[in-house]
């Protein structure tokens, strides 16, 4: 064999001096092979660098051994949001040890997105998909169910769904942030929220409003598209108000970091003049000055959990609702007592 030739079962059989059928039985853990022979065959296969052919496996069992993640956001937003690389890393943590391939696509919500799902299924490129950024009355639930493939949703849909869900309580994290600021003495807190069309954006906003009302806090909400640029725009508007808030709770770290920059360029001291909290606890936020107080959701762990759930669904398991541990608030230097007048 040359260096660029993949060793086959036939090559292993020749080296071991046995039949291809016996090698196949040994490599697949089937009965009919003695322990000593199995061990010798596995040792020779490892020495030769043999690995299973994904194409051969796919043809033999009628599966793609691949799963899809279609992200329905602008590519610019995806590229700038640290959540997705961490989430995808978690998915790969699971897929890399199970022989799966991740097929990643970005598509504009609507017809282009529908065509992307249909194309993945028509070409038999995936066995299942992860549905992220659930929307109100999400039409993708019926679409994917009609396509006849397995799926897992990130969050619990607000419509009937045949798919397993993997979720965290977004609201718990926001409540922790509001209570933390209220305990510091803040009575005027704003929320820079995500899109109202996305369920997790709605959940975080609703949790903010309930927590603020429970603590007797003056509150206001500005919706965004989750991008840093829109977070900066929202921050500018809040700070230009006749009575600016003394604290801002952001719906992701990307916007919180942009908001911190806006405040500092205006000469404000964070947290003496303005307290800021983020959501997701991305690594960059820990190295800012001041370091960012943020809600930690473990995006990588969420990705791994979603991947495991999808593999189980592909194998035919019944649907279930999986709830991950509640988020934690990691308090750092970007929050403090409100300014004194």
- Give the H and E element order: HHHHEHHEHEHEEHEHEHEHEEHEE
Q: What is the end-to-end distance?
A: 80 Å
Unreliable stretches (pLDDT < 50, length at least 5) are none
Q: What is the number of helical segments per DSSP (H or I, 4+ residues)?
A: 13
What class do helices, strands and sheet pairing give?
alpha/beta
Q: What is the name of the CATH topology of the largest domain? A: Rossmann fold
β-strand number:
12
Q: Judging from the principal axes of the Cα atoms, what is the shape?
A: elongated
Biggest sheet details = 6 strands, parallel
CATH class of the largest domain: Alpha Beta
CATH architecture tag of the largest domain:
3-Layer(aba) Sandwich
Instruction: Report the oligomer.
Output: single chain
How many individual domains? 3
> What portion of residues belong to β-strands?
15-25%
- Mean pLDDT equals 89
Radius of gyration: 25 Å
Question: Describe it for me?
Answer:
By secondary structure, the chain is of the alpha/beta class. It has 3 domains: about 10-50, 434 Repressor (Amino-terminal Domain) (Orthogonal Bundle), CATH 1.10.260.40; about 65-170 and about 300-325, 3-Layer(aba) Sandwich (Rossmann fold); about 170-295, Response regulator (Rossmann fold, 3-Layer(aba) Sandwich). It contains 13 helices and 12 strands.
């Amino acid at each position: 064999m040359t260096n660029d030739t993949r060793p086959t079962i036939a090559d292993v059989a020749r080296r071991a001096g046995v039949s291809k059928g016996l090698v196949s039985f040994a490599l697949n853990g089937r009965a009919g092979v003695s322990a000593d022979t199995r061990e010798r065959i596995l040792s020779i296969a490892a020495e030769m660098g043999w690995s299973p052919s994904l194409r051969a496996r796919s043809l033999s069992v009628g599966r793609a051994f691949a799963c899809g993640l279609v992200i329905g956001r602008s590519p610019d937003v995806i590229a700038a949001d640290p959540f997705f690389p961490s989430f995808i890393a978690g998915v790969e943590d699971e897929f890399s040890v199970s022989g799966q391939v991740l097929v990643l696509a970005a598509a504009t919500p609507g017809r282009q997105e529908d065509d992307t799902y249909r194309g993945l299924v028509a070409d038999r490129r995936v066995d299942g998909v992860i549905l992220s950024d659930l929307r109100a009355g999400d039409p993708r639930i019926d679409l994917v169910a009609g396509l006849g493939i397995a799926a897992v949703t990130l969050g619990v849909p607000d419509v009937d769904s045949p798919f397993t869900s993997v979720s965290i309580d977004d609201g718990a994290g926001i409540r922790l942030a509001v209570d933390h600021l209220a305990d510091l003495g803040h009575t005027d807190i704003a929320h820079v929220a995500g899109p109202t069309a996305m369920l997790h954006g709605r959940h975080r906003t609703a949790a903010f409003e309930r927590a603020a009302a429970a603590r007797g806090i003056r509150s206001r909400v500005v919706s965004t598209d989750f991008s840093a640029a829109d977070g900066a725009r929202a921050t500018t508007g809040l700070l230009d108000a006749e009575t600016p808030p003394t604290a801002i709770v952001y719906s992701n770290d990307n916007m919180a970091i942009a908001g911190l920059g806006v405040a500092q360029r205006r000469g404000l001291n964070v947290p003496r003049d303005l307290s800021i909290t983020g959501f997701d606890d991305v690594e960059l936020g820990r190295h800012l000055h001041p370091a960012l107080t943020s809600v930690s959701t473990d995006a990588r762990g969420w990705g791994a959990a979603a991947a495991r759930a999808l593999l189980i669904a592909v194998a035919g398991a019944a649907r279930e609702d999986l709830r991950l541990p509640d988020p934690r608030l990691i308090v750092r230097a970007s929050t403090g007592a409100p300014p004194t007048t």
